[in-house]
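Reviewers of the previous submission asked for a worked example of the structure-prediction workflow described in the proposal, so we include one complete record here. The input consisted solely of the amino acid sequence. No template or homolog information was supplied to the procedure at any stage.
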Amino acid sequence: MSDPYIVKPDRKFLHSILNRGGEDLKNCYQCATCSVVCELSSVRKPFPRKEMIWSQWGLKDRLMADPDVWLCHQCNDCSTRCPRGARPGDVLAAVRQQAVEHYSVPRILGSCVNQLKLIPLMLIVPAVLLGLALLVRKPIEAMLPFEEHSAFYSDFMPHWLLIGFFTSFTTLTFLAGLFGVFRFWKGMAAADKTSSDNTPALGIIPSAIRTLTSILTHNKFSSCTEQISRRMAHLTAFYGFAALFVVTVWAVIDLYVNPTVFGIESMYPFGLMHPMKILANIGCVLLIFGCIKAIMDRKAKQGGSSASTPFDLIFVWLLLGVGISGLLTEILRFTAEPAKIAGLNYLAFTVYFVHLVLVFDLLVFLPYSKFAHILYRTAALVYAEHTGRNQDISQAKQS
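From that input alone, the workflow returned the following structure tokens.
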């Protein structure tokens, strides 16, 4: 028998849900249609009905430690079939935004990054930091001479400075994100312990492998009926970003190791026909296509479309900006470098600087934006496999 639970409504939390896409929450009258029609909902821990109850009651502590909030992929099958128009998919999306802010370290960034009125500040901060880095370049080079590989953009931003700058900030970001995920996992385990349902069903490593397979195939989106087209947008953007990440890591390695790829000497910067450059261009096209499709899907405003909130729009437009500015940076490199026209060089360096600012916003603000889904949803999926939360779903699909 579970221990007694003292209900402590958080009215501020409830109002926040209502103001972030969950304004139809109060229409819900607990018929459970949403849980019945959801293909991802399990028998043991069905959702989103219980999440709708907890949201109406303002039970923030319950929702912040609930992995089912993250098992929802907002396909909105539940929303289109709700007889009262309560739109559970949008409510859970609002709860996820609250969770990102709740686990943010420092928490103030979680609330600042996702406000439209603060976008100028989010762009100015990295611009100032990059400017300061350029100011200290000469004094540092005078004290500690660096062996620099000759490249077009390295005349503006040397590799040692670029790598040191982004490594420092992304390391802090990684630690902040890791701490948030640790708190989330601890909260999920504590909640299950309270309900006497914390017996592991599968090891962490096998659970992680299953989750990784699911993420790589995006098979959860295959269960959607109303918005199955979202799978294409997510897949292309995901693999586009993954390709660009691989190329970036390889470029850093190449600067110091100079490996050989497919028999081609790999000295950075890569030529157009280098395998890594080809992969980068394919990744860039996929990323841009995925972002544009995601924006168009939302603008279609079909019956099953999700509510567009700043939390969603800031992320997808930022991701698109990174892709487009990166493509322009490459085009200008191959145009300005041989032309040796001063004005074109300044344009190339300006676009490159804008690209670096957008990359900073995307990566360094990762734990505080919608990009944090990659952390918390992954943790929730692993936890669900680990605790056997999804066993009945797997058995149903196999039968």
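Confidence is low (pLDDT under 50) at residues 394-399. We consider this example representative of the routine output the project will generate in years two and three.
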